[in-house]
Amino acid sequence: MPGTLVAMPGALPEGESVPRDGSLPAAATRAVGARGFGVYLHVPFCASRCGYCDFNTYTAAELGGGASRESYADTVLAELALAGRVLGGSPPPRVDTVFVGGGTPTLLPADDLARILDGIDRVWGLAADAEVTTEANPESVTPESLKTLRAAGYTRISLGMQSAAPGVLAILDRKHSAGRATAAALEARDAGFEHVNLDLIYGTPGERAEDFAASLDQVVAAGVDHVSAYALIVEDGTRLAARMRRGELPYPSDDVAADRYLAAEAALDAAGFSWYEVSNWARSEAARCRHNLLYWTGADWWGLGPGAHSHVGGVRWWNVKHPTTYAERLAAGESPGLAREVLTPDEAHMEDVMLRLRLSSGLPLAVLDDTGRAGAERALAGGLLAAPEYAAGRAVLTLRGRLLADAVVRDLLP
To answer: Which intervals of the chain are annotated as region Disordered (predicted)?
Structure first.
């Protein structure tokens, strides 16, 4: 399917140990930021848990002692100081993008989010045109908090709308009303945010075609400049998965999801949006999420917070998951990194193909080996790759190819 809801995995992968001081191999830090440098901040707090969610998040009842929202900003600033020391021996990177995700970042006071952004600027320096995004649940922001965030330097907000249908929101265990997301989007524009994204989930059991059409209509009417739309996937261990196993709800249908994707493409294209990644549409190039583009094009980023992943110079590592353990490591002056891996050339190539093929700019055919070129020829013949772009030396998915993106990727890899 063209899009899946991306979450930090329920179980972190295995890898080699991270040094206690978080140090990286010299080769990894030699050219930090040459392809761009971003900062991701994970805020693991939620007021309640959505039934589909497998993210690394915690309600107040799940946290236990040793971690709290009140002390979280100070703990993050401690990791940021460590990050500054780790990268201090290399040319200091300018931060091109910051993305605050969760969880529900806006459960933190807006002043704390401002303080963390100021800390990032002090350690590395924000580029003059830095993109600074925070995610938010629609019910977790007010006109006043949005103005505070905008004044602090946040330039972009991504609101978790998911659906405009009350019944769908109920199945997903979302707490906001059907119209709150679009109201929050308008409040964000009034607060001075140029760039506003609304997230949609499609293929929820019980969702009708007219429900999704109404969601798309509300998104367009809200005047946002970016839309993300992901097919629902059912993660083991979630409340939604348990309900499906008990037979209370049917499992999602691939055919329905494909129909929803085609509906999204038609409605958004008619409203002046263009796809630039399989699950993302923007009204202009300036409205594209530059932070996600760093991920998709193999740039460097430092992930702050429990469970956050980082990538610098071909080394990828991930922090301990629980906020209490995360806070304890930093209080002891140690890196919160749990494990890491150094990507091999084959692994780097595989990820490059997987991610760049999903972009409207596509993948240069020159990076493919003989097996990949043969697979690209088959995809072209099957109408999955665009002929004009192929003739110009790039593999770019057609609309049908976007529906079968995962299959095309498999065919381009050894």
So the answer is: 1-21
